[in-house]
Give the backbone structure.
Amino acid sequence: MFFNPSCLSNQSTIKGLWAGLSDEGNPEKEWGRAYGYPECCISEYLKPEGEVVFEKQLRELLNSDSEYPEAFNYLMPSQTPCSINCQASLELLEIWKGVLEAYDPEAADFLKHFNILSLEHPAQEAESPGMLQTMVAKFLKTLRLG
């Protein structure tokens, strides 16, 4: 499901989202539910700081000869799957891909290329001086806009 309207049927949940608090005192959990993220992924995301399992698994996958699921090219910046094998996340990403390609092909292409470039330059590198400008320039060149 692209957006989960059933989570908004409870008035306290709605108030919690806008106030930054929920019944559970965890706004990230409520926003994850509102976006339709799988519960397993929300739980993984909310674990104490540390290495994110998905990112480690994805790096290992990219460094191997294994096939990379195209659905990961359509990850929204706010979503972190619980693992590379999470079927619920892969299904959600396929839905997002279909919606974007049907209604906004340019946005689909932008997101796909953004994620590919992000894989080429891990977050630590992207935070270095000039790296963001380099990534954006490369991205725009890929789209033939720069």
